[in-house]
Write a structure and sequence with these properties.
heterotrimer; B: alpha/beta; 6-stranded mixed beta sheet; 12 helices; 41% helix; C: mainly alpha; 11 helices; elongated
Chain lengths: 342, 275, 293
């Protein structure tokens, strides 16, 4: 079993990923220590920072008085034990902070990616199949606008119009102030509420989800439409599509069996990249909607030079990317026999 | 001259794409069990003639003339009726088997999907027929081959598979567009002879499009030469090769390597026939 | 003069003017030109001064103040116009620098191969392992909030894409017959690089760059929005939207700067698309793959 090519491939990938993760921690560590500003002052406040003893105690507590390579080695050592250090802002272990922030972001990210893929790929296929006609031009225009809109501005406008003026959707946070969160299973309020049978909580959580998810979706829909369109167009020109037509197969069969299957490979690549764009987008969106996810955590950490927190976010994001890449690569193998490891 | 049944008759076929005249009145007959060669240089319109019969022309094409198949004019049919004939009555094999077979669908899938669609066979029957077809085109281990993919076969084998796919529903007409041009020279003869044998066995009317006169002389019964969108000569192979009626044909033959400054001798033609 | 220089350049010359004639291309070109004019003419167009806090605060749009006034009593219209002088040139600068740095590294990687190639590719892998905004945010935070640092941070996340594309192009061209022929004729590696390879690479890379100005604008204004770029009182669109959050009722404070960003980015995206459509499908394919960041 261990000698099976697939297992060997996975082990190799895991090895490379581990190296990449170390690289990610190194990069984050170096970057956050380039800080010209002093994190001590940023986190203690002016007056406390003027007291030498307080500063010394602070530095000793966070190990900031030791040489950099030692700090890094200590960090790595702790990491292997699951200790990501303590946030200088919240004074809680970074791991705990992330444990509450990650599900929040996942809720909107998963919703956004599912919606984007369904709509974006659908639009892209329609645009390619109806190339040159009205539907194509309209969809191309929509997707161009989609990738041109500044996400933070859209969040603001959406908040203003739908929440503030029209009162159609709640704007802030994951739940109304009066609602208590459902019992914790996954951390995803919608899922947990469903599991606990709390329908009202579910509805409330869903309502709060809508605006941030939709705002995030616009950009990714634009991206996916464009790339799906060009991927499908490229496939449509291939000889094997003409062969399928020469066999007298109905148009729909040709489209789904021959065209889409081949186009899935580049489309998958874009979906993976879109997920990354989404994570970037959460930074901008979460602030406006007071969404306590990784995005706003990252922003708070970065602007306060909270180094352990920044490292933690960097690590999380790096790992997510690696996992996504791995999944995409495995899916390639499932779709395209030429790529398979066996 | 034995009276052969004319399966497909092309009459006065014209084609315009955009502002360019591609075909200027092509006349050709395809007869059951015989291979009609269509030779010519690039741009002569020979491929377009084949595509016109199939109805796979590019979007801005305007076609004229008639293509009579049975008692119908193909060009007058509605798209749906035309599509019903593709694969079932009229089939096509393309030039490059490395791109004309889908890279991600198994050979079995590509053999059986139109089989099941047109003939309404169930999975087992379709599979059995697929194995039969692969045997006919001389692919080793036919049942194992069904599960494999195009990239796992050699060029010659891929083209045979493409031929099997084309013949799956027992069509009456086969259009072969440069079927051996993308193949190694050593493999070409095998594929060509397969085509000839299948034509005889199945009573297929074959249109063999190629720029290679050597290919033509190996298997074609009837040879037509095209130049700039029209047929300039059409006759029995023997005759065209030894005593071409049109100066263009003569110049084509003269340009063959080995033909020293003149028309090929009957001996040369006979030697090729013996291959 | 490279052998293929002529036909390729000619193709660019004829195809590019064609791109202007599509509605997409024309709209993009016109809007982009308008903004460039606004940036260039600058103070000549401003009805007021962008920094003067003379006026009534938080006034909605009126005849005197088309875009209203902000929380410090400044004219929003002027500030939006002034913002063009900040964002647009910086976006162009960012793209230019990314092209140069990424291009040079990509050239080196593709041309010299082996360990140079490996190193450059691993570094790009590492950088591209982060979503752009997050990494840029971290860099900008560590460097300190200023426009220049925001550009630097954006540069760090932007050059890898160009390095990858350039390397890909070079690797493709390196084996071309005419390049090998010239080497046999005795061209030194450097000369081969300069005369045979660089001219073929600049075209697609420049097209990619023009497509990128929109993305660069979004990134820079995003960083400013997060407070990591322009510092008050600079009139920068992203930071103007950020201040607008605190003054929610005064919708004009955030809507207009955002619209400015939207129109600029749309213009360059339209232009880039039109350009891409007009060119060789092959080049378009290469660009397509490199566009995702």
């Amino acid at each position: 079993m261990v000698s099976s090519p697939l297992v060997r491939y996975l082990l190799r990938r895991l090895g490379v990923s581990a190296l990449l993760i170390v690289g990610v921690t190194l990069v984050t560590f170096v970057l956050t220590n380039l800080v010209p500003g002093d994190p001590v002052a940023a986190n203690l406040g002016q007056r406390a920072a003027e007291n030498a003893e307080t500063v010394a105690a602070y530095r000793a507590h966070y190990g900031l008085d030791r040489p950099l390579p030692v700090q890094y080695a200590t960090y790595l050592g702790n990491l292997l034990q699951g200790d990501l250090g303590e946030s200088q802002q919240t004074h809680r272990p970074v791991l705990v902070d992330l444990q509450s922030a990650v599900p929040a972001t996942l809720e909107i990210a998963i919703g956004a990616i599912v919606l984007s893929v369904l709509i974006g790929v659908g639009f892209g296929v329609v645009a390619a199949v109806r190339r040159g006609r009205l539907a194509d031009s309209a969809l191309r225009l929509v997707s161009l606008v989609g990738i041109s809109v500044p996400t933070f501005w859209l969040a603001l406008v959406a908040f203003y119009v739908f929440s503030f003026q029209l009162d159609l959707a709640p704007g802030s946070g994951r739940l109304a102030p009066a609602t208590t969160p459902p019992p914790h299973v996954t951390g995803l309020y919608t899922l947990d509420a469903l599991l606990a049978g709390e329908w009202e909580t579910f509805g409330d959580a869903l309502a709060h989800l809508m605006l941030p998810t939709l705002v995030l979706t616009l950009y990714t829909v634009g991206l996916l439409t464009r790339f799906t369109r060009s991927a499908v167009l490229e496939v449509l020109e291939q000889d094997y599509v003409r062969s399928a037509r020469a066999k007298g197969l109905p148009g729909r069969t040709v489209l789904f069996r021959y065209v889409l299957r081949a186009a899935m490979v580049p489309i998958l690549t874009v979906v993976g990249l879109a997920f990354g764009a989404l994570l970037s987008g959460t930074v901008l969106v979460e602030e406006i909607f007071s969404w306590p996810g990784v995005g706003s955590y990252a922003y708070q950490a970065a602007s306060h030079l909270d180094l352990p927190a920044v490292m933690g976010v960097g690590l999380f994001v790096g790992i997510v990317y690696l996992v996504i890449n791995l999944i995409v690569d495995l899916l390639y193998g499932a779709i395209d026999p030429r790529v398979r490891v066996t | 001259m034995t009276a052969q049944r004319t399966t497909l008759e092309i009459s006065g076929l014209t084609l315009r794409i955009g502002d360019t005249e591609i075909l200027r009145g092509v006349d050709l007959d395809l007869e059951a069990g015989r291979i009609q060669g269509l030779a010519g240089e690039s741009g002569s319109g020979k491929t377009m003639t084949g595509l016109a019969v199939m109805g796979l022309l590019p979007d801005r094409s305007r076609v004229g003339g008639t293509i009579t198949f049975g008692d119908r004019d193909l060009l007058a049919l509605a798209p749906r009726q035309r599509n019903a004939l593709r694969g079932t009555e009229i089939a096509m094999v393309f030039q490059d088997p490395s791109t004309s077979l889908h890279p991600m669908l198994s050979v079995g899938a590509q053999l059986t999907d139109h089989l099941r669609h047109h003939l309404r066979l169930d999975r087992a029957a379709a599979r059995a027929r697929a194995v039969e077809l692969l045997e006919r085109v001389r692919i080793p281990d036919p049942s194992g081959a069904l599960r494999r993919f195009a990239h796992q076969f050699s060029g010659g084998q891929r083209q045979r598979i493409a031929i099997a796919i084309a013949l799956a529903c027992s069509p009456s007409v086969l259009i072969a567009d440069e079927p051996t041009t993308a193949l190694d020279v050593t493999v070409q003869a095998g594929v060509l002879h397969l085509l000839r044998d299948l034509a005889r066995e199945m009573g297929l009317a074959v249109l063999l499009v190629t720029h290679d006169l050597g290919v033509m002389s190996a298997v074609a019964d009837q040879v037509a030469v095209m130049r700039r969108g029209a047929v300039v000569e059409n006759g029995e192979r023997h005759q065209v090769f030894t005593a071409p009626a049109h100066p263009y044909t003569a110049s084509l033959l003269a340009s063959l390597p080995g033909a020293a400054g003149g028309v090929r001798s009957l001996d040369d033609v006979r030697a090729l026939e013996e291959l | 003069m490279s052998r293929l220089d002529g036909p390729l350049r000619a193709r660019f010359r004829t195809r590019i003017p064609q791109a202007w004639r599509t509605p997409l291309g024309i709209t993009g070109a016109v809007v982009a030109l308008v903004w460039i004019l606004i940036a260039v003419l600058g103070p000549a167009l401003w009805p007021y001064d962008p920094l003067t806090q003379d006026f009534a605060r938080l006034e909605p749009p009126t005849g005197a103040h088309w875009f209203g006034t902000d929380e410090l009593g400044r004219d929003v219209f002027t500030r939006v116009l002034a913002g063009a002088r900040v964002t647009v040139p910086l976006a162009v600068l960012l793209v230019g620098l990314s092209v140069v740095i990424g291009g040079v590294l990509g050239l080196a990687a593709g041309f010299f191969g082996r360990w140079v190639d490996e190193t450059v590719m691993r570094v790009t892998d590492l950088v591209m392992a982060f979503p752009t905004v997050i990494l840029a945010m971290v860099v900008a935070a560590s460097l300190g909030a200023s426009l220049l640092n925001a550009v630097l941070a954006a540069l760090v996340v932007s050059w890898p894409a160009y390095a990858r594309v350039t390397r890909g192009l070079v690797v493709g061209i390196r084996q071309a017959d005419y390049v090998l022929a010239d080497r046999l004729l005795g061209f030194s590696p450097l000369r081969s690089l300069g005369t045979d390879i660089v001219p073929m690479v600049t075209g697609p890379v420049l097209i990619l760059a023009s497509l990128d100005i929109g993305t660069a604008t979004l990134l820079l204004s995003g960083l400013s929005f997060l407070g990591l770029g322009a510092k008050p009182p600079t009139a920068e669109w992203g930071s103007m939207v950020a201040t607008a959050i605190q003054n929610f009722d005064s919708w004009w404070m955030g809507v207009f700067p955002g619209l400015a960003i939207l129109t600029v980015v749309m213009a360059f995206n339209f232009l880039g698309d039109a350009l891409r459509d007009a060119l060789d499908p092959r080049t378009a394919g290469v660009l397509g793959k490199a566009e995702t960041r």
